[in-house]
Amino acid sequence: MFAAIANAFRVPDLRKKIMFTLFILVLYRIGAHVPVPGVNATSIQATLDNLPALGMLNLFSGNALAQFSVFSLGVMPYITASIIMQLLQAAIPALERLKKEGEAGQQKITQYTRYLTVFIATVEAIGFIGMIFAGAIDYSGGLPRWFSMAVVVVTLVAGTTLIMWLAELITQRGIGNGMSLLIFASIISGFPAALASSLMFGNDGALGNALMVTLIIAVVLAVIMVVIYIDRGQRRIPVNYAKRVVGRRVMGGTSTYIPLKVNGANVIPIIFASAILSIPMQLALVINTPWFQSFANAISSGPLNWIVTFILIVFFSYFYTALIFNPIELSDNLRQQGGFIPGVRPGQKTVEYIQTVMNRIVLPGALFLGTIAVGTSILFSVTNNPLIQQFGGTSILIMVGVALETMTQIESQLKMRHYDGFFK
Fold it and tell me: Over the range 332-343, which residues count as b (16 or more CB within 10 Å of their CB) and which as e?
């Protein structure tokens, strides 16, 4: 692995991409500590302590919400907008046609996603200021109340827009998926504080706390190993190519395979499920009714949250796999290139075979993701340890998935230049 890292920094353009990505991540973390003007941070922290349902939003913002920085809204508005656009593409024919237009259509969809992100961020910012953190704004400067609130709302929306821009810069000019890397940086930034809190947690003394932390870290490492094993798992469908004569050359007559990943959706189901579960809490900022507040708190933690999280992860595993994997298009490409699956007729039978195999391998991957995400949440509810809260199943799956995805991109760049990659 260390040799692969050294090789990555020997390639000039790859080194520039890695350094650019690290630079953007540093800027993102600096922005998470820049406070919004005219807000009492102590009052914000007290409100968060009374509303544990906001813990997931604070986690994905890298503790920016607790400090009420310019990046307090975090990546959730963009993720929510992306989910809505993904659903609309399957429901609205015009958006589906745009998706099939290639790069030009994708640019328009991206533009619509940006507009929707700004709208969602504005609604969330107004909800934060109007409902949850209304008492945290300092009106002692002599400015009108509406002006002070407007400054805070504009600052929060501008921070979300800047996060969206930084993520797109990483995706276009850096290494890896920009939004996923920002989430990764937000989660990993809380490790030192969570470790320190865990060492001082409870009444078992220093030795007891140290043993508990050691046990938790050992469990986390074991989970990471299992996650990597499942993530690298494949179902290989054999493909044969018939011989054909092109001019004076004989082509084909070879055998290969189609690699279908057990966890083809990677961390997307976890991120989408977390974003969906944060929507009631975000709506509760605007809908200030007792029954809806109770529902938002119930679905943010506890048994109802575990059940809904598990169901959403399984659903989005199938949904996202169906979006990115088209068996009809794959079958057509095989037929055009003279390829066929042994024992399966070309055409509709090939489509049905690939679809059946895909459905069968997605299920264990989805159940695995749901079990890891929910299992650690249950463990935290029993032990109430802050380290488990910070590095629960959702956090581990996101971090490992993003790390593997980024390493895969670096490895592909190294293989193009005849270097050995990370995975042997």
Answer: eebeeeebbbee
Q: What is the 3-state secondary structure (H, E, C) of the chain?
A: CHHHHHHHHHCHHHHHHHHHHHHHHHHHHHHCCCECCCECHHHHHHHHHHCHHHHHHHHHCCCHHHHCECCCCCCHHHHHHHHHHHHHHHHCHHHHHHHCCCHHHHHHHHHHHHHHHHHHHHHHHHHHHHHHCHHHECCCCCCCHHHHHHHHHHHHHHHHHHHHHHHHHHHHHCCCCHHHHHHHHHHHCCHHHHHHHHHCCCCCHHHHHHHHHHHHHHHHHHHHHHHHHHHCCEEEEEEEECCEEECCEEECCCEEEEEEECCCCCCHHHHHHHHHHHHHHHHHCCCCCHHHHHHHHHHHCCHHHHHHHHHHHHHHHHHHHHHHCCHHHHHHHHHHCCEECCCCCCCHHHHHHHHHHHHHHHHHHHHHHHHHHHHHHHHHHHHCCHHHHHCCHHHHHHHHHHHHHHHHHHHHHHHHCCCCCCCC
Q: Is the pLDDT of residue 202 over 60?
A: no
Judged against a pLDDT cut of 70, whether residue 240 lies above it is answered with: yes
Residue listed under structure tokens 């947690």: 201
- Of 170, 138, 132, nearest in space to 151 by CA: 138
pTM of the model: 0.76
| Polymer length of the chain | 424
More confident of the two residues 49 and 355: 355
Q: What are phi and psi of 239, to 5 degrees?
A: -135, 130
Nearest residue to 119 (alpha-carbon basis) of 151, 163, 88, 77: 77
- 284, 295, 42, 157: CA torsion to nearest 10: -30
Q: How far are the Cα atoms of 72, 90, 266 from residue 67, in angstroms, in the given order?
A: 8, 38, 31
Q: How far apart are CA 317 and CA 269, in angstroms?
A: 5
Placement of tokens 């094993």 in the chain: 229
Could you tell me if 34 and 63 are in contact, meaning their C-beta atoms sit under 8 angstroms apart? no
What pLDDT digit, counting tens, does each position of 128-186 carry? 776 666 666 765 666 677 777 888 888 889 999 999 999 989 988 888 888 888 888 88
Q: Average pLDDT over the chain, rounded to whole?
A: 78
- Supply 349's token pair: 């039978």
